[in-house]
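R.M. (postdoc): so does anyone remember the format we settled on? I'll just put the structure tokens first.
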């Protein structure tokens, strides 16, 4: 790890000892001129602050170090709202002395996060990036009265389906089904609302992929981090969208990266999040022999995914009509998984995330035909709801359908 100090990169290992040495010399100097040196507690706080400023994200670092923090919303330097895993939402201390200092902090992060420097200024007032700990940062300026920042924590880096079964996100049967679906190279689209846990579920599914496969990931801002775990995925290429420079040149879009990924000998292509015209390229990729692809999309239900895809396709350069898009969906996507979040008032309002629907794409007849193979029952349980058309294939990959005896 490195940090930028006076225009130079400085190695992180041993930095704590160096900071302690500097503070010790400062204390001696204070004693030498007859002033009281910092106490042990003050010195520890100073050391932590200096380390965070040099190698972390300044006064944001304590919040990012707190394992109970889920989201951080900043509406100006002194309006900091923090959401915790237990459902609490509290206002916390300022993260900068001024809005200008907050903007400078974000600019430094933008310069050294991701694969290329990302501008954040009046000409480029929007920013999305991944922080060193895996958290997702989104920032805007000039289109709001004060700079605004939202940080969504990524508390589960190396996550497996067994972890999600253990915390109740996925039922044991859906966990077995998803594991078999990945092994059978089914194309899976994960859907849900903002902050529902789509990316975490995507990581868990990706970790079901055998290590000998070559993975290509395509993202707007690096977030999945599959290349960080070589023991799980030794052969990964991570693509990140490149924004245009101040002259409007040099942009490389998500759609272009998806097309490029097909020339890189992928076993599977994983698109971190579909938000626009890349959907047509991605669906075409899924129908060209790249089975086992994974992606996420925003939607309010598993059924709504098809309309959302059709809307994106209408906005793409190809201007696909709805009928053509539905044919493309039917040939490309095998399963849609819907993950939702709810406040569990039986447990004190704690936020609950869980897979509530799995829909199998069955074909097309003017519209996409599908059946909800797992659905939310009136009693709150997620149960098998319809037989799978590919049951024999999934059984070959270890799926034992306990719900359909």
């Amino acid at each position: 790890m490195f940090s930028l100090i006076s225009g130079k990169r400085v190695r992180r290992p041993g930095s704590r000892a160096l900071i302690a040495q500097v503070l010790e010399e400062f204390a001696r100097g204070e004693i030498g001129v007859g002033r009281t040196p910092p106490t042990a507690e003050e010195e520890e706080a100073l050391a932590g602050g200096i380390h965070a400023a040099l190698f972390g994200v300044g006064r944001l670092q304590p919040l990012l170090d707190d394992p109970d923090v889920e989201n951080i919303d900043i509406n100006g330097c002194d309006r900091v709202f923090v959401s915790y895993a237990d459902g609490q939402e509290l206002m916390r201390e300022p993260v900068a002395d001024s809005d200008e200092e907050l903007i400078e902090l974000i600019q430094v992060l933008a310069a050294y996060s991701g694969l290329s420097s990302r501008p954040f200024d009046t000409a480029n007032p929007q920013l999305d990036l991944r922080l060193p700990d895996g958290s997702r940062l989104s920032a805007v300026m000039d289109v709001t009265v004060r700079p605004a920042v939202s940080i969504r924590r990524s508390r589960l880096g190396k996550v497996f389906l067994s972890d999600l079964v253990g915390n109740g996100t996925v039922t044991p049967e859906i966990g077995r089904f998803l594991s078999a679906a990945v092994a059978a190279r089914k194309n899976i689209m994960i859907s849900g609302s903002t902050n529902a846990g789509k990316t975490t579920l995507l990581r868990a599914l990706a970790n079901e992929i055998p290590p000998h496969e070559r993975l290509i990931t395509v993202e707007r801002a690096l977030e999945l981090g599959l290349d960080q775990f070589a023991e799980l995925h030794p052969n990964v290429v991570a693509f990140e969208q490149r924004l245009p420079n101040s002259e409007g040149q040099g942009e490389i879009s998500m759609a272009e990266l998806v097309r490029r990924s097909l020339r890189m000998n992928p076993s599977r292509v994983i698109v971190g999040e579909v938000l626009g015209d890349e959907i047509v390229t991605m669906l075409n990729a899924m129908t060209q022999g790249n089975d086992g692809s994974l992606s996420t999309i925003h939607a309010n239900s598993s059924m709504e995914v098809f309309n959302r895809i059709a809307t994106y396709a209408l906005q793409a350069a190809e201007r696909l009509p709805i009928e053509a898009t539905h044919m493309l969906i039917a040939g490309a996507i095998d399963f849609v998984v819907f993950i939702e979040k709810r406040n569990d008032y039986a447990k004190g309002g704690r936020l609950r995330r869980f897979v509530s629907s799995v829909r199998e794409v069955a074909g097309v007849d003017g519209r996409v035909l599908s059946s909800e193979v797992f659905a939310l029952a009136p009693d709150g349980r997620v149960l098998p709801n319809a037989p799978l058309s590919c049951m024999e294939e999934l059984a070959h990959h270890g799926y034992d359908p306990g719900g359909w005896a």
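R.M.: ...and that's the designed sequence above, right after the tokens. Also worth knowing: The two ends are 54 Å apart (CA to CA). Residues 1-13 have pLDDT under 50 and may be disordered.
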